[in-house]
User: Fold Winged helix DNA-binding domain-containing protein from Amycolatopsis deserti.
Amino acid sequence: MPDVDREQVLAYRIAAHGLHRDVAEPLGLTVFDLGLQSTQRETAAISLAARLPGPVTEESLVDDPRFVLAWTHRGAPHFHRADEISRVTAALVPLDEDDAMARMGWQRKQVEAAGMSALDGLFTAARAMRKVVTRVMTKGAASEAVTKIIPDGLSYWCRGCQATHILEQVMRLAAIHGGVRLEAGAQPATLAPLEGRPRMRTTPDVGAATAVVRDYLHLHGPATPKEAADFVGTKAAVVKRMWPEELAEVRFDGRTVWLPSADVGALENPPEPDVVRLLPPWDPFLQSRDRAVLVPDRARQKEVWKILGNPGALLAGGEVAGVWRTKGSGRKRLDFTITAFDPLPPAWRKAAEEEAERVARARGFADLKVSWS
Assistant:
């Protein structure tokens, strides 16, 4: 059983995530095997800018028909390759009631109180969304229409809107099964039917679910079933039923962890992580569920992953070396504040400022200012 250290693990992940900029086309980036999260408008473009050698703009994914945006893993919005959306949808069918309830996450108690099983609630909502979303419409309009035709237990009274809405997590999880996607680049959030409107399937596809776990282990490994389950949004016991074959056991930090057997050589001898990148909040590299591996210091973890308002992360020399934030001055100038955890060599600071230029261009700003703190 190979024994690896933290430096090898981080160097391996940096390479697996395409952060060496050795892939020219977005379709070839392995991060799209799991999907590229797009929680804020520009985050996906900034993630691309960190990985592609060529220019990137906000429209790089928005206007590319080869990609589709949808609520998928954990109900979060992700860009996926359009020709793989059926496989992604199949992977998101819960294996059983226990799995379905676990995926309800923060709204589990409300679903339990609805008087129906999580599976029934999920697919009842999916059928309603399929019936309602037959054209481009705002999330608010879709929620209002769906709420009228679902059981009362799946909705709640919203004080802020002074209206009744479908439970947020139920809506997000059900949308893809109802053949509904998100309109990329639209504000406010806007829904539309998926092209071709595939027939809804309710039967689990263990093979498709297993592929998600395997892709997680490739990008974020070596890892445990618990960490893979946290990414999927379910329990470790459920993920063990999705556990891939042809995995290798690895000894890391005194415990046994796993990754695809084909990746062992790359883990044992990864390329030097001699890159400096500005990663946006929710960048795929930051989605590893073993945060203590990425950032061992707990105080620094709290700086990178906040309850609200995550900053971006400065990646330098194989480490998360700091955080960064921006403030726009109209559409003319983007002001960066980069906070390094420790003093950085001048070459790394210069490289970070060059990365800031790429981020500014990706967000449509012609001018920028970088301040260090």
